[in-house]
Amino acid sequence: MPFNSTTQEHSEGFIRLSLAAPFLQYLTERKINPQPALDQVGLKAELLSDPSVFVHSELVYGLVNAFSEVSGDQYLGLNVGETFDLQEWPPFAQALQSTKTLFEFFTRFVGLVPQESSSVRHSLVIEADKATYRIERQQEPTVPPVQVTGFAAAIYLRLLQTVVGGAWDSSLVRLESRYINSLPFGYKRIEVGLGSDPGMQISFPVEWLFLHHVSEGFAKPIALPRQDEEVTVVAALRSVLRDKLDETDLGPEVVAGLLGIQPERLLKALQKQGTTLPREIKRLRVDVAKEHIREDKMTMAEIGLLLGYSDKSHFTRFFRGQTGMTPTKFRSK
Fold first, then answer.
1. Distance CA 66, CA 73 (A)
2. pLDDT averaged over consecutive 10-residue blocks of the chain (333 residues)?
3. Considering its fold, how many domains does the chain have in total?
4. Distance (Å, rounded) from C-alpha 191 to C-alpha 203?
């Protein structure tokens, strides 16, 4: 009986960049300079604190692997996962507060994680004697997700242990992954096996699913939930281009570079979504223009410049062509 989080239609491999923020915070708190790693992948530190920015998952794999190198910590991902505040992770906090049993928790959780990433497929498989939580990567990675796997192992084992409470028995838990070098020998005294695919899975007694989870004193108020949508190439594209609409070159090479993938992969992903790069840039320009016009804080000329139109009349023609009315008339409405 499987419960899945995503479908093959949403397997483009994009991820919320802020998921790498705990790594940056961990290094900063220990006075380790992260800049060489950020320079290696071409990212600015402030982008990691913006939850609206999406990039391709392999850009994040490369970044956190580079963080491991600059810190000299082979198990950086695991150590970051051990200190990460689970209540700061919306899928966990929301699932914990809205369920009573581990079964309810996981079935709720697998529906929330697609808001964070489309690079993996989460599923809960129930058999007669065991339950298995699987995290399957949707593409064969060219960048090995070693530190991400260590982080995920720490997170999901903590998550399971937190929800199970006093019934936890490490000898009944088995973790499988291709990247078991991300874990030290004997970690948490669980059984560890080498997996055949680039994902990860954790097996445990099926009886645990029907225990009432222990959340008293653990749950706390949650921030407003994020938009209930899966991470797609369109969402990723809009997130990285929003502040770059005034630039003259927004071709496939430039945009793909911002997302951390090859241009051909970007165009193929857009084709699967039934759209094109010029169409999405045009839609984004219209949406951003409407937001600024509604706010009534900028002149039409200033909004036009923000979107790449040096001439107010050019911006007016563009906006009227897309919406059927001039920017001034839209503001008056």
1. 10
2. 44 80 95 95 89 88 96 97 88 85 88 70 90 86 92 93 89 96 94 91 95 60 46 83 88 87 86 89 92 88 90 90 90 84
3. 2
4. 10
Helix 277-295 and helix 233-241: axis angle, to 10°?
50
d(C-alpha 36, C-alpha 157), whole Å: 31
- CATH code of 251's domain: 1.10.10.60
Q: Which two tokens stand for residue 235?
A: 């969402």
pLDDT of residue 221: 45
pLDDT at position 217, please? 44
- Report d(CA 315, CA 168) in Å as an integer: 62
Contact between residue 149 and residue 77 where contact means Cβ atoms under 8 Å apart: yes
The answer on 169 and 127 residing in a single domain is: yes
The domain of 238 spans 233-332
Residue 224 lies in a domain: no
Token look-up 């200033």 returns 302
Is 218 domain-assigned?
A: no
Question: How many beta carbons lie within 10 A of that of residue 19, not counting itself?
Answer: 19
Report the distance separating Cα 205 and Cα 225, nearest Å: 31
Determine contact, residues 300/315, Cβ cutoff 8 Å.
Answer: yes
Question: Which pLDDT belongs to residue 234?
Answer: 86
